[in-house]
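Dear Dr. V.,

Thank you for agreeing to look over these. As mentioned in my earlier message, I'm a first-year student in the group and I'm still getting used to reading structure tokens, so any feedback on how I've presented them would be very welcome. I ran two proteins. I've put each sequence directly above its structure. The first is here:
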Amino acid sequence: MWDCIQCWSPSRRRSLRRLVSRTSTRTVLQTPLAAVKYQDVCHFIVSDYRYLAPSSSTNSTGLVSVFRLPDDKVTGKLEVEWVRKVADDYQTDDVFQAAFLATVLFTTSSTKANKIKLSNEARDYLRKLGNTRVVFLHAPLLLPGPYLMVRNQLRDVWRLYDDTHGTCMVTLKPQATPQDSFATFQWMGSSSQFPSFAIRSRIKTTFQPVSPIAGLRIIVKDNIHLKGTRTSQGNKAFYNTYPAQEASAPCIQRLVDKGVTVAGKSKMNSFGNWEEPLEYIDFQAPWNARGDGYQSTGGSSSGSAAALAAYEFLDLAIGTDTWGSVTRPALWCGLFGLRPSFGAVPSSGIEPFCGVYDTAGLLGRDLKKCRQFAAEWLDDRVLVKEPKPFGSIVWATDFWDIVEVNQQQMARNFIRIIKDTLTIECHDVSFSKAWAQAPPAEANGLSLVSYIDEATAAQCYDALHNCQDFRTRYKEMFKHEPYISPPNQRMWDFARTITKEKRDEGFDRLSVYRKWFRETIFSAHNSNPLVVMPLESMRPRYRDEAPDFKRPPQPGVNPLGIAAVLECPVLSVPVSEIAYHSRITDQEEQLPFVVAVMSKQGKFLLQVLKHGGMPTTVQTGRSMFQKNV
């Protein structure tokens, strides 16, 4: 797993060992190296950065940087311009810091390493950065970046970040190869409250990238299988029932094969059901960095969203979405959230809630990065190819009726930007009125809500029966029933009243609705429209309050579920922020305001938002857009 010098010749190993051991620890670091040996690993701190490296001994330690020489630099002198550029590039890496330049190993695939010289200007430049030794080596397999030297071995280093917001069930060790099993990283954070993330340098993970997304760091919701780890679904009994997985879900293995780093498995509402923080029983709910820090995260991909809102060292997060489980946490945590077209992500290896609607989804802070990631991740063959540009904007009046007026105005301002940028019209459309004017024959005169309201409960039947194997296995193993949270118990009790025939009828009705919507709303003057919807009406929802609001907020096929029913992609877009007076901090804070944009094709709004001057990135921390203090 570790890059080491033991593959080199004995003479070269001895030479390098003497080189590093001659450089005192105090000289290399400019401050004493604080190192602790624990279970064959070395934990050390440099300028308040925490690192970890495996260790058989902590004697003769020193910090090292490897600079990889390109083929055109293997003869003559290395000039200061090239050395400065590499050092400057390294300084942008969050794992690297200048102390690692104490010893610099210039490596090359050429056997002429001993003929390379460093110009006096380059040597002086490195010396000003704290360098005391340089050496040129033929080491074609050694990756560039920071290392720790322990005796005769170069050890890869991982920077440790605390999971201060309690977002993950487990954090993971970096894999050496895409075929390796994942292994949990059992190292507590500096406060001993939360686990630490082990983060490898991007200098190494992006060297000779295998894809455009190589080096990106993600976390994965804990209902998605990872080879070598157990899956919890947010429930202790489920975690204890099944062994570690023998294979990763194909949708994750595809990413790993493309060079993406999986840093942890994120918390979730148990079994993917709607749970607010007080309803988390087996594991503590993650903490939302937005606002006063005591707001709901949404769910069920709660940990994935909370992590992206809190940690800059993570790029993206994978969740799953059945009925708003990606888009709703994107709302509460102030992120871009994509539920892709149904079938664009393989579902095998994902614990199902309702397979008819389940899909993996994506959360991110940078829309451009989301688009690049999706282009590598999604199966382009199943995406709708619409040759026409967006023809109109649909303002879904039935959905906006429950949203406060000031939030509607924010959304109208957002629509005006899209409208002006694309030079298209916006139409206010009531789906219930459109249904009344042109109902499908199958409705037999029933209103839209009357026809589909009870039909949406069909997914509860699937949620119950998808857990039958778990309940049976658990009872056989432990001789009693498993603990299930009250929201899930209520849903399962209700699901037991639904017959298989009633379930099938429900899904048939939803199929009728899908066909009607495509033929009615996605046609005529609304051809190829962008449907703009709310997700919820935003107001403070403190994590210490028992939920007393309606879940979901509207009957029938509501904004959280319509994309699932229509098998369309939907994107949550951060638009603005809503000021509120926090009872926690006793001062003004900001809630995210995020709208959902649905279309029948998998296009992103990146260029539209850019041309309209809208933000395409959000920050971590209390505010999406304001500089956090």
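The second protein is here, in the same arrangement:
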Amino acid sequence: MFVAPKLAGNQALRVLLKLGRFHVNISADNDGAEEITLFRLRDSAPPTDTSRCFDEMVDDATSKARYRFTIQQLRILAIKLQLPHDGIITSAGDRVGRVEALAMVCRRLSEASKLLTVASEFGRSTAAYSRIVSATHKDILYFHEFLIKTRIEDYCTTIHAAGSPIQSCWGFIDGTKQYISRPSAREKSNIPNENLQRSVFNGHPRRHCFNWQSIQAPDGIIVS
């Protein structure tokens, strides 16, 4: 059974005009038992709740629950990540301050939620929210794009010179335990009798450490 692709309203109109130009006659069968569906129009976008917006005066507890950071921490993080001082501007012309843009990214990554749910919290459409998050995420990942590309080329050259037949290898999977200092208890914790030492203690080396499969570059830098 043929299933027509979803079309926007203007796309469907263009197809109808072309059909009319070539005088194509489309009808059901003689018995009328079968209906021919030409188009499956896209569902209309849900309305945007413009009454809600990003609130920089929100208390620290609520901010941490939403974004994993306080508003002050988001301001510092936006500076450290070198996000544009005049804010994020998408290709569609969406403009948003860098603190709000970073909050939108953190909110999107904090939990698995529908796009409509998180977009409504900032008073934006799902399309605008998606564009802003993508643009901000790109700025975070590639704010040192030239340096990263140069380093990767050096890594590939070094590994190939050491005897590797592959010229595009720039790192290796490494599961070495990364030892850390013994963590102390947090001053303000909502968890009674919180034991941070237990959460990072490894019984094999009997030390506190982080243990995951990372990608390590030839110079020892942990990339991920």
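From my reading of the second output: The chain has a mean pLDDT of 81. The helical segments are 9-21, 60-67, 71-80, 98-110, 115-121, 126-141, 145-161, 196-200. Does that match how you would interpret it?

Kind regards,
E.
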